[in-house]
Design a protein that fits this description.
By secondary structure, the protein is mostly helical. It is 72% helix and 2% strand. A two-stranded antiparallel sheet has the order 1-2. Helix 3 packs antiparallel against helix 9.
Length: 501
Amino acid sequence: MITLELQVALALFIPLIGAIGVSISGASQNVRDGITLVTAGILFVNVMSILVAVWGGASPEISLISSLPGLDVALKVEPLGMIFACVASTLWIVNSIYSFGYMRGNREQKQTRFYVCFAVAISAAMGVAFSGNLLTLFIFYEVLSLSTYPLVTHKGNAGALKGGRIYLGILLGTSIGLFLPAIIWVWTLTGTTDFVAGGILKEHVSPGITAILLFLFMYGIGKAALMPIHRWLPAAMVAPTPVSALLHAVAVVKAGVFSVLKVIIYIFGIDFLSTTGAAEWLTWVAGYTLIAASVVALTKNNLKARLAYSTISQLAYIVLAASLVTPMAVAGGALQIVMHAMGKITLFFCAGAIYTATKKTEISDMRGLGRVMPFTFIAFFIGSLSIIGIPPLGGSWAKFYIMLGAVEADQLIVFAVLLISSLLNIAYLMPVVIRGFFYAPLGEAPTSKQEGEYRSLISWGSLKEAPLLCVAPPFLTALGCIALFFAVDPIYQLILPIVTP
């Protein structure tokens, strides 16, 4: 009989077993892709069965490796980690389907290595989600960085290698230089690194030490992309679009902001941080990142670059929410993990579909494309509305709860920052839709279509979408943005125990 604890361990090993199968079957595209999809499906079923148990009050935990006292490599399932695991396992399925269309449609090389590394990254994301202490979190956090490096440098050209160096250099530099010392410091102060409801530092540190530790953690978790250590994220846009979706929605940046929330909730404790005021500086840094990244996004003509800076801004919502250390704000930050994942993966899927069909990457070249790619641009429109926070899209709930948290913390300036950010979101996302549907086509001459590639001739009344496997996933995730608006209560009820005494 498979126990709940074994299911938690299997969440790590299922993707690894799939990676081995993909590696062995790489000579056959259909078999390789089939193994990828089946593995993703099995992981999804496994995670959903764990979710049912957690909803029933279970909190399974398992020790993988015992070392020094308080430094075990251990897994423990709690509501916040459960949410992240559900996001990663669900979106792996749609991202895999999308990848099949994108990688084949663009005749990408080294596809087997791509799917192997992708599976290893998902395994690492599961480890991050179910980590029972800081040591376990750090180990899987590093595995996630290393396993995604070959994905970022997938194209193998000079630009990809440079982007990969920036990506890995910043992420490893911050984690080893700041995150790891913070973990060691916490262990020496408390004798443990376990995640405990209410935090473990309250009786062991002064407000001054608390602020220093918080700084080490917030900038040591480089995947949260706070300015000025955000450059790895735009640099990673040299990767194929399915990798961008992985970075922005499925695993990497979500692992960063998830870790931020987990450290604040289970290491510092919301009440402790609130009484010390040690997180006030973080509110200002997150607010600045939120606005500054949106302003930079306005200046980017490359669609993926604009979406990258949008992600930096949207991640700052979560860090800002955590810094307010109120139940409503933290709940809004947790909701933002889910809502942003669904909205942003939609936008990156659409960017990849446009590239696959037309080879266009610059927004200024997308005049009239909505007329020939209506399904792609409608999906982009829906995803944008969710990112902006317009009802009835899921993103509106996250923004609503964070705003309530700002009022609860008596931070009206933060409330104003959130409103300004929403206006900036409209300013950098809506022009893509407007240009696509309401600008006259460029009237380009036909381009030759090579075997395995999909190039669209912009012509009035002629639908020339990307391959079905590139169009169906963003349309499904766009519908997911709508569904999440009406399904928010179960997610909120799952989050509630971690933000209330």
